[in-house]
């Protein structure tokens, strides 16, 4: 391949001068040929976010699997921690590690 010709897969020769090159304000060649459909990209990203394990399981996970629903309701009415059953903090900030 010589510097004055570009060769494609069909072995058709094109002169390099026939391809218009555009430059930016710094004199660098602008890259082209890639068109991004932003709506399709946004739809793909939102689909990934909604299908993640964290988001899909979050609504199905029980508040405290070692407590009954009645115990959870009672502790929440009294504003107590679901882990240590003490007041002053929420169960996510409890100092105990793991289920009691």
What this model shows, in words?
With 100 residues, the chain is mostly helical. It has one domain. Helix content is 28%, strand content 6%. The chain has three helices and two strands. Strands 1-2 form a two-stranded antiparallel ribbon. A hairpin with a 5-residue loop joins strand 1 and strand 2. The longest helix has 13 residues. The radius of gyration is 31 Å and the shape is rod-shaped. The mean pLDDT is 71.
How much of the polypeptide forms β-strand, as a percent range?
5-15%
- Shape, principal axes of CA atoms: rod-shaped
Radius of gyration: 31 Å
Average pLDDT rating? 71
The SSE order reads EEHHH
Number of helices: 3
List the helices and strands and how they pair.
Blueprint: E1 5-7, E2 13-15, H1 38-50, H2 53-58, H3 69-77
Antiparallel strand pairs: 1-2
At a glance:
The protein is mostly helical and 100 residues long.
Q: What are the defining features of this structure?
A:
100 residues, mainly alpha, two-stranded antiparallel sheet, rod-shaped
């Amino acid at each position: 391949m010589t510097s004055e010709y570009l060769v494609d897969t069909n072995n058709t020769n094109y002169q390099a001068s026939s391809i218009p090159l555009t430059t930016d304000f710094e004199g660098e060649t602008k890259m082209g040929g890639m068109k991004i459909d932003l709506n399709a990209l946004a739809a793909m990203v939102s689909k990934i976010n909604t299908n993640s394990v964290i988001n899909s399981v979050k609504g199905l996970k029980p508040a405290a699997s070692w407590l009954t629903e009645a115990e959870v309701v009672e502790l929440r009415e009294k504003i107590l921690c679901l882990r240590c059953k003490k007041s002053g903090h929420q169960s996510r900030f409890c100092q105990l590690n793991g289920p009691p």
